[in-house]
Amino acid sequence: MAEAVAIAVPLLTREQVVPSRARLKLPPWLEIAKPRLIPLLLATTLGGMALTESWPMPAPRLACTLGGGALAAAAAGVLNCLWEEQLDGRMLRTSGRALPSGRLSAAKAFNIAVALACSAGLLLVMGVNCLAASLSLLGLCSYVLLYTVVLKPRTTQNIVIGGVAGAIPPLVGAAAATGHIGLGGWWLFGLVMVWTPAHFWALALLLEDDYRSVGIPMLPVVKGPFVTGNAIIRYAWATIAASFLGVFILPTGGLFYGLMLLPFNGRLLQMAQQLHQDPCDRVRAKGLFRWSILYLFGICLLLLLARTTAAAQFNLQLPSLFNMFSGEPF
User: Fold this and answer.
1) How many CB atoms within 10 Å of residue 210?
2) pLDDT per residue over 248-284, tens digit each?
3) CA torsion, ordered 181, 185, 186, 192, to nearest 10 deg
4) What is the DSSP code (8-state) at residue 210?
């Protein structure tokens, strides 16, 4: 009877657990800009701003920073699609994308990329400052040249080093707020760097067959899922350790941030450990991949909340609460 029940339960197919983009059809020009990646980049830009003494920023400069960052990220996405057009065409999962499927020409895509990059640079130079504009350009170049062209096809550590591209937006935010990069901006840059490998390798476990079919040396392809699981748990611990440094780096509200951070880190560690126990489980890999995105959004939200008046008051009252529960006078 037990065997019959086990047979009756259908196993999840790869298509059911691998993230799918087939449900939402975008116009070709918008699809190649990879708009799904932009909100998280803008969230970390806001996080970089919140870590400065100049927060909150004037609305016009804030709008120009986020608008310019979105345009630069879109330009990077288009250039990435252009470089990987043939590679995408060789994989079943990506062969229907705008460029390999012929729904958009490479010439039009290149013109779109140039227009987006120029618009981003102009908006940031005119509405923010030259440092923020330069850092956005650096982020674009590091994603397209460093990661896509140089690292991705050559080394299993592509995402570890190439993660610098996704970690630059906090620097842009700090530069936009103050005109220089302070300790807070560099801390969030480092946090995103150590967050990236566990996040991306969870996705790489889901897409291992695709990467293997085209010879991309992602860590699961070269070293296997168990080595990848070990690497994920190490970087998850590094992310947790780095995240708590924000308690000391935030100008205000550090204690509030640290307390609210505990459930985020607890869930991240739980899911990383579950995947470490069975790195071949695609359901667990998908769960960690999705939670890691929510985790970074949550960190940035906590940074913004920590700069509110309520969080500052909480910081002042927390020592009194500790003294009250410990029975000591205050």
Assistant:
1) 19
2) 999 999 999 999 999 999 999 999 999 999 999 999 9
3) -140
4) H
